[in-house]
Write a structure and sequence with these properties.
globular; mainly alpha; 1% strand; 66% helix; two-stranded antiparallel sheet; 277 residues
Length: 277
């Protein structure tokens, strides 16, 4: 039984089914925002209206806050980013979330690739010839935070007895329940339910689950993304709208990578129908 439960945990998807459609809708909106910003600021080298207002409010903070900005900025540097990614990926592994651990690495990496590739295409510069749009630091930290939010949302829902991200039908049948009925340990007795109401492929489910799960995931992303955006503006490393572009990049990359991970990362111990075994 213990082995079955462990395998079910490893089979959990990176993107909970209940959050899949909302996060993809947000990703589309973020992609549109990213494209619009890229077109508007292509080839520019000066702040616009919103940029001027935000820079006047944030840039050159007093000494203690400047030091805080440097610490936050370190989270987007190669060494700091590697530490954060390793910590989040490690937490996912310890929680038995293999696919989420893969997302913790692949999501931020894609953000780095996308922001690095877009900068010369957009051609926006700051402080001379430094390419600035979109902010890679903001994109990376937001991506890490979104993955952490997915992990916290899943674990929180599981602890509250709302099922967490589910085991598969096969795993539920192996775990079984009272009376030997497959999925008996699942509310509603539906194999693979793992959710209140017994909906197959559940996880953080239902209207309440959607609201709470979405609030946790995007709350983490918003807080961490805003912190990095503030640091980049305070250090005069980016225009404020550069950080918006970085935030939008993360909102696009993380759900898309999660879909690929869920489709391509195999279930541990599950037979490959094409392998003949």
């Amino acid at each position: 039984m213990r082995a079955g439960v462990r395998q079910g945990r490893w089979e959990a998807p990176a993107l909970p089914p209940v959050l899949r459609t909302p996060m993809l809708v947000v990703a589309v909106a973020a992609l549109v925002t990213l494209v619009v910003l890229a077109v508007v600021f292509a080839g520019s080298s000066d702040p616009r209206g919103f940029d001027r207002w935000a820079q006047a409010t944030v840039t050159d903070p007093p000494a203690p806050w400047y030091d805080v900005a440097l610490v936050v900025d370190f989270g987007g540097e190669p060494a700091g980013a590697a530490i954060l990614v390793a910590l989040v990926a490690g937490a996912c592994v310890l929680a038995g979330k293999l696919r989420l651990a893969v997302l913790a690495v692949a999501g931020p990496c894609l953000c780095v690739v996308v922001t690095t590739g877009l900068k010369p295409l957009v051609g926006r510069t700051i402080n001379g010839d430094f390419l600035s749009f979109p902010s890679g630091h903001t994109a990376l930290l937001t991506a890490v935070a979104l993955v952490l939010g997915l992990l916290v949302a899943d674990l929180g829902m599981a602890r509250r007895g709302r099922g967490g991200i589910p085991v598969s039908g096969a795993s539920a049948a192996r775990v079984g329940g009272a009376g030997g009925v497959p999925g008996g340990g699942v509310p509603g007795g539906v194999p693979g339910g793992g959710v209140t109401g017994g909906v197959p492929g559940g996880g953080v489910t239902g209207g309440g689950g959607l609201l709470v799960g979405g609030a946790v995931v995007y709350g983490f992303g918003l807080v961490c993304g805003a912190a990095m955006a503030w640091a980049q503006i305070a250090l005069d490393a980016h225009y404020p709208t550069d950080t918006l572009g970085g935030f939008a990049t993360a909102l696009v990359c993380v759900p898309l990578v999660a879909l690929v991970v869920d489709a391509r990362v195999p279930h541990p111990g599950r037979r490959d129908p094409h392998s003949g075994r």
